[in-house]
Write a structure and sequence with these properties.
320 residues; alpha/beta; Rossmann fold; seven-stranded mixed β-sheet; 20 strands; 23% helix
C-alpha cells in the first residue's frame, strides 16, 4: 500500500505524503514549512489550501474537506481532523483490502483554534512520534494555561512586556486566543499577523489581536516567532521577558536550553501518553513511527506492538 523513498508515498496512486521536495501530486497534511514543497498539485483541506498558497504562492490544489471520502488513483482518501493547527489533517486510505491511517502532526484533546483530532481504526498506522519519550508527559492543558497566565501577569507586575515565542502558524494563534480569552490583548509580529488574517477569514476568532508596529502597549502581550523575539525585530521594545510555549519545556532546565526567561509546556503535538492512547485506539496490525526517537519503537515492541521505524530502511521498500 505504501513505500518510503526519502519520504512517504502511497504506491497505487503514486501519491506523495508530506514529502519535502517538489512532486507531481502530493497530500499536504498542514502548512508548516517542514511539510511543504512547491508541488505541481497538492491535496489538502480547504484551510490548509489557503495557508499553503500563502506560503508557496499560487498553486493548483484539490481540496479535501474533513470526513468527505474521495477516490484517487484506485484508493479512497479521507481527511480527518488532526488537532494540530488550522486545517491540519490525518489521512485515512482504503484500497478495498487494507486500510492505512497517516497521522501527520497531531494532538489529542482540546485546542482553542483547531478542530479536535478524530482517530479511526486501521490495519496500518503511520504515526508522528515527536514526543515518544516518557520524559515528555505534559501537564493537563488547564495547568499549562494557568502557568502561562501567571507568568504573563508576573511580567506585567514587574513593569515589563511579556514576549511569547511562538511559531507564526499555529502556536502564535493558539497562544493569542488563550490570552485574549482571559482578557489579555495581544500584539503580533508581522509574520504571525499575516497568518492570523487567514484564521479570521476561515472563521477562527482570535479576539483582541493587533499588529505590533511602533512599540509595546501597556497591558498587552507580544507574540512573535522565536527568531523575532528581540528588539531588532520588534522596534521600541526595551524592558521585556521572553516566554517559550512548547512541549520541549517538559525537560529539566528548559528555559536555559531554549534561551528564554520562562518556558511553559503547552504543546500542539501528542505527548508520550497521547501517542500510546492513539496507538491503542487505532488498533493497527502494524505501526510505523516517524519524526521521533528510535527507542520509541523498541518501547512499543516491548509492549507487544508490531512497531517499525518508517525511515529505517531495514524493511523492503514496498509494503504489500
Amino acid at each position: 500500500m505504501f513505500h518510503y523513498d526519502r519520504g512517504l508515498f502511497l504506491t497505487r496512486p503514486g501519491l506523495a505524503v508530506d514529502v519535502r521536495r517538489r512532486q507531481s501530486c502530493a497530500f499536504v497534511s498542514h502548512a508548516h514549512s517542514d511539510h511543504l514543497a512547491p508541488h505541481q498539485l497538492a491535496l489538502c483541506t480547504p484551510p490548509t489550501a489557503r495557508l499553503y498558497r500563502l506560503r508557496m504562492g499560487s498553486r493548483e490544489v484539490v481540496e479535501l474537506p474533513y470526513q468527505q471520502p474521495r477516490q484517487w488513483g484506485g484508493v479512497w482518501l479521507t481527511a480527518l481532523p488532526a488537532g494540530h493547527c488550522l486545517g491540519s489533517a490525518m489521512l485515512y486510505v482504503e484500497d478495498g483490502s487494507e486500510s492505512l491511517l497517516y497521522t501527520g502532526d497531531f494532538k489529542l484533546g482540546c485546542s482553542a483554534t483547531a478542530q479536535a483530532a478524530e482517530l479511526c481504526r486501521a490495519d496500518v498506522l503511520i504515526i508522528e512520534s515527536t514526543y515518544g519519550d516518557p520524559q515528555y508527559r505534559h501537564p493537563p492543558r488547564e495547568a499549562a494555561i494557568s502557568q502561562l497566565l501567571e507568568t504573563v501577569e508576573g511580567i506585567f507586575a514587574r513593569g515589563a512586556t511579556p514576549v511569547i515565542a511562538a511559531y507564526a502558524l499555529g502556536k502564535a494563534q493558539e497562544v493569542s486566543r488563550i490570552l485574549t480569552q482571559h482578557g489579555i490583548p495581544v500584539l503580533q509580529h508581522h509574520d504571525a499577523m499575516t497568518v492570523s488574517r487567514v484564521y479570521f477569514e476561515c472563521g477562527v476568532d482570535l479576539g483582541a489581536v493587533a499588529l505590533y508596529e511602533d512599540g509595546p502597549l501597556p497591558g498587552h502581550a507580544v507574540v512573535a516567532p522565536p527568531a523575532k523575539c528581540r528588539p531588532h525585530a520588534l522596534p521600541g521594545l526595551t524592558r521585556y521577558e521572553t516566554i517559550a510555549v512548547t512541549g520541549w519545556a517538559a525537560r529539566a532546565n528548559a528555559s536555559a536550553r531554549l534561551r528564554v526567561d520562562h518556558a511553559v509546556p503547552l504543546s500542539d503535538h501528542a505527548d508520550f501518553d497521547e501517542l500510546l492512547a492513539a496507538i491503542e485506539r487505532v488498533s493497527a496490525q502494524e505501526v510505523y513511527c516517524t519524526h521521533g526517537p528510535a527507542q520509541f519503537v523498541e518501547l512499543l515492541r516491548a509492549r507487544g506492538v508490531n512497531a517499525h521505524r518508517l525511515e529505517s530502511g531495514r524493511r523492503p521498500p514496498f509494503h504489500r
